[in-house]
Specification:
Length: 177
């Protein structure tokens, strides 16, 4: 009886892991974009000692002019003493860093970040895949208990053993992104 139960549990775990991989593959890899819609590479393109017009800032960051104007309404400082209105590079970078910091969600030890719910969530059955990213980092992937969407968490490779005690981890070696 116990072996049948173990077999069923192992089959279920393999099914969840396969489903997580399928969902991850179909939803794309848009993990590096924050809630401002600006990815990390574009935000680093801002030169702090330079001034930007609204159009130049939009082009540099890869967003629309309307997005920059929306940021001005929500607190991005603008030099209005002459036309065209200018944005200080330092102010723009600080604004983006503050927005990115405010959008970070603290996670509990047994949670991953759900990309659909935009909140911390426990993965289904505590089953996760561990996918190496770089020589120092790895990504934990699972399925959200609430919405069945993809859950994600970046960790240090040195902490894989620690998270293996919290989650049932399937390590996917050789699948670096």
């Amino acid at each position: 009886m116990r072996t049948k139960l173990q077999f069923a549990a192992n089959t279920l775990m393999a099914g969840f892991a396969a489903l997580a991989r399928l969902l991850y593959a179909t939803k794309g890899r848009d993990f590096c974009r924050n809630q401002t819609g600006v990815d990390a590479d574009h935000a680093r393109a801002i030169k702090v000692a330079r001034t930007y017009t609204v159009e130049e800032a939009a082009n540099t960051l890869g967003v629309s002019v309307g997005t920059i104007r929306s940021w001005v309404k929500s607190g991005l400082p603008l030099m209005r003493s002459q036309r065209p209105f200018l944005i200080l590079g330092d102010a723009l970078r600080n604004f983006l860093e503050n927005r990115a910091q405010a959008s970070k969600v603290p996670l509990l030890e047994n949670q991953l970040y759900c990309l659909t719910c935009k909140a911390g969530s426990t993965p289904m059955g505590l089953l996760v895949d561990c996918i190496p990213q770089t020589s120092k980092t790895a990504r934990l992937l699972g399925l959200c208990e609430v919405c069945s969407g993809t859950c994600n968490r970046m960790i240090s490779r040195s902490k894989i053993d620690h998270f293996s005690q919290v989650f049932c981890v399937a390590i996917k070696e050789g699948q670096q992104a």
